[in-house]
Fold this sequence. Notes:
This protein has a single domain (6-105, 146-212), classed as Rossmann fold (3-Layer(aba) Sandwich). It starts with 5 loop residues before the first helix and ends in a 17-residue tail after the last strand. The protein has helices spanning 6-16, 47-59, 74-89, 111-120, 123-131, 143-160, 173-184, 188-191, and strands spanning 21-27, 65-70, 98-99, 165-171, 199-205, 208-212. A 6-stranded mixed β-sheet has the order 3-2-4-1-5-6, with helices on both faces. The chain is of the alpha/beta class. It is built from 8 helices and 6 strands; from the N terminus they run αβαβαβαααβααββ.
Amino acid sequence: MNFCKDTLNVICDLHGQGIEKVAAIIRHSARNYDDDSRMEPFMCLTDEGKSFCSAFGEGLPDNRALRLYSSHIGRCIETAYLVDKGYSKNGGKTDDTIVVSELSPFYVLDFMKTIEIIKEHDLMTFIRNWIDGKFDESILMSAEASVRQMITFITDQLNTSDNGALYICVSHDWNIYLLKELGLNLPHEEYGKIDYLEGIVIYENNGEFYITNHQMKQAMTYPQFWPTF
């Protein structure tokens, strides 16, 4: 098993084009699992997953101002920490990882009822029903509102950053599924499951924001529901 290099390649391609402000929201690395769904928040990275993180960090473009953000869940914090260590091997400098709610499962408003829903669905059906608005918003925030919150967080960072800033934001596959479909029109039924360390990339160029992913032929500007900047 190899780690997903697709998002890393997108970042490196943008660096090669001279794009100065880049942010990637990626899924954490390879993780452990448990049959008890109540243990889900406590599942950390496998040894293989840890090595993937280091390789990802080592592959990032040199001489960027790398800033790391993470979900509060342990496997995401681990991923960010080890990406940092990988980047440092090449002499890269980073800031301390910052844990933020916008990369976490902030959209889960009733944890126990969400667990009950998950048990009734396979993951792909769960994501489809969520995006289609079939769950009560007292249990799960709407998919559209969730995406808006994530996008706003990233663009706020890019708006206030210096040139040369590279943000690696470690999150979860649920978050990436929403971003891929609602931000890029890449539904999972057609474009597949989210791999470890796969994600989407947002960047600023000539005063405009773009969103892309390795499965896109061309980056997109704001989807209709994005906030006005």
